[in-house]
Design brief:
The complex is a heterodimer.
Chain A lengths: L4 E3 L2 E4 L5 E6 L6 E7 L5 E8 L2 E4 L8 E4 L6 E5 L8 E8 L8 E2 L3 E5 L1
Chain B lengths: L3 E4 L2 E5 L4 E7 L4 E9 L6 E7 L4 E4 L2 E6 L4 E6 L8 E9 L6 E3 L3 E6 L1
Parallel strand pairs in B: 2-11
Antiparallel strand pairs in B: 1-3, 3-8, 4-5, 4-9, 6-7, 7-8, 9-10, 9-11
The chains are: A mainly beta, B mainly beta.
Chain lengths: 114, 113
């Protein structure tokens, strides 16, 4: 049973471009969470999704950021018109059922905005 | 405001020594508390999970304690190894939230030979 997979592991974008981060949860997990870790800071919650639904997006910046978890395929975190301040590690986690279950983290995507 | 504070921010110890990391939280109501280990360049990996009714939980050389009255937790590492060098993160689950974790800043531990 493969763990949570994220790709790409490293992503470099120039200011103004779009970044797409992908997360494939563990098999059998229907809950996905996205977190952001800025340099020298702790992880911060961004969004919680179930299949085809956004449950809690209270941590998402109001503009340029969006997330989806379609019926088929991975969850996508999309950042439009990236700025230097978006440079961070973005982690995805998944859990099987109830949100209180332990979350398993992926290896992260390190986004660098030039 | 729901917060998780960890101390010390960083710690250097010699291989074979013990150490204790601290976590204070103000999250209420509280569901459970978790300690994660995060190696450089990797995602966090769970070490222990404790509910408010549990005082102590061990996982190999790692022992976590919880005092729900004072809202304090500690992670004790026994007989440290070089592979223990990592960031240790205290995470608290707010019982009113559907899975949203509140993270501490982490303690960076460096074990030297």
């Amino acid at each position: 049973n493969a763990g949570v997979m994220q790709n790409p592991r490293h992503l470099v974008r120039r200011r103004g471009q779009e970044a797409r981060l992908r997360c494939s949860p563990m098999k059998g997990h229907s809950h996905v969470y996205w977190y952001r870790q800025l340099p020298e800071e702790g992880l911060k919650f961004m969004v919680y999704l179930q299949k085809e639904n956004i449950i809690d997006e209270s941590g998402m910046p109001k503009e340029r950021f969006s997330a989806e978890f379609p019926k088929e395929g991975p969850s996508i975190l999309r950042i439009q018109q990236v700025v230097r301040g978006d440079s961070a590690a973005y982690f995805c986690a998944s859990s099987p059922q109830l949100a209180d279950n332990e979350q398993f983290f992926g290896p992260g995507t390190r986004l660098t905005v030039l | 405001k729901n917060q998780v504070e960890q101390s010390p921010q960083s710690l250097i110890i010699l291989e074979g020594k013990n150490c204790t990391l601290q976590c204070n939280y103000t999250v209420s109501p509280f569901s459970n508390l978790r300690w994660y280990k995060q190696d450089t360049g990797r995602g966090p990996v769970s070490l222990t999970i404790m509910t408010f009714s549990e005082n102590t939980k061990s996982n190999g050389r790692y022992t976590a304690t919880l005092d729900a009255d004072t809202k304090q937790s500690s992670l004790h590492i026994t007989a440290s190894q070089l592979s223990d060098s990592a960031s240790y993160i205290c995470v608290v689950i707010h019982s009113g939230n559907t899975g949203k974790l509140i993270f501490g800043q982490g303690t960076t531990l460096q074990v030297k030979p």
